[in-house]
Each structure stands twice: as C-alpha cells, then as structure tokens.
Amino acid sequence: MAGCSGLPKPCKAPEDDCPTKEECANSEVVRQFIKRVWNYRWTSKDDKAFLDARAKGNQCYVPPSIAAALDELRSSRTIRHRRDRKGKPIRSTGADDYATCVNAVHEVIQEIKLKILDLVVDGDRVVAHIAFEGVDRRADKRTDRPGAFGAKSPTGARFRVHTATFYRVRNGRIAEDWLAFEVPYPGPLKAQAA
User: 57, 130 in Cβ contact below 8 A?
Assistant: First the structure.
C-alpha cells in the first residue's frame, strides 16, 4: 500500500504520536499490575497459607506481596467487566474483588505467566494484548475437583491462550477493566503426553 504518497494530491506528513507523560504513567501502572499481581511467583509457604485459608473458608487470600500490589495499583471501587462461559456479561467490584479473582485462578491454574505482547495507550485507556500461560493443575493437587476453563478435573496440560484486557486508569490506579478471551472460549484443556 502506497500510503499518502500514492494519492493524487499527497497529504501532509503525519504528526508524531508520542505518548504523553500521563499515558506513559498509565501504561506503567498496567505493566506493574501484571508483573506484581499475575506474574508473582507463589512459594510453597504461600501455597500452604492459601490452602489453610481455603480450609477456613477464606476465598480471598493472596500472599502479602500481591495484597500490597493490589492496594497500590487499584482502588477498592475498581470495576471488573468480563463474560461468563456462555457469553453473559458480568461485572464485579469491591475491596476484596481482585483478591478473590486471583485466589480463584490460583486454585485451578499453576505456573501462571502473563506475557504482554502489545500495549496500546490513549489517555486514561490502556489495552494489553496478553499471552496467558499456565498449567491446568489445582493448588491442592486434587484430581476429583474442577480444573481450569470448566474442565471436570484438571488435565495437567500446559496451555497458552490469548487475551486482551482494556484498562481505565485514574489517579495512578486501575479504575476499571474489561477482559476478553480469545474466541472461541478455550474450554476444557486436553492432557499433555508425558
């Protein structure tokens, strides 16, 4: 494609589209959120505390480092938008909302790694195209309970799915986000050959 130079009357040279300081700061909030919340490496001590909390009915336990990152990088009124497996829109908010989400994901997926493939920022909006990797294995190592993505039991499969999350950042904190999984929804994973 020839671009502007291919037109009968060439257009002006494009203007620079450099991010503003605010946009750079907003994209850094998202980078830090992914790094410190989702890419945190759970230790055996963290897993023990997680399992002990779960046994007591606490479904919002996260390690202290993740709790500190959540306190710093999102507000207690952050709104999360996503869709359930059937495509129905759902939203949630509250002081423990993100911790409950991280807890639920850690329950069924281990060795989580989110790799930012692309980051686009425009004012207070940041879009992260992400490769979400992990292992369909429960933290409690049980095989008689549900696994990742709706599986009746964990398969032990390594997986990689693409997602995009749209963030709105206000005053240095995530105010709202929208999660979109690849289509079709990944569904239950197949076990890997040993």
Answer: no
pLDDT tens digits in sequence order for the chain, 194 residues long: 455 556 666 667 666 666 899 999 999 999 999 999 999 999 999 999 999 999 999 999 999 999 999 999 998 899 999 887 777 888 999 999 999 999 999 999 999 999 999 999 999 999 999 999 999 999 999 999 988 887 888 989 999 989 999 999 999 999 999 998 654 445 555 555 44
Domain map (residue ranges) of the chain: 20-181
CATH of domain 20-181: 3.10.450.50
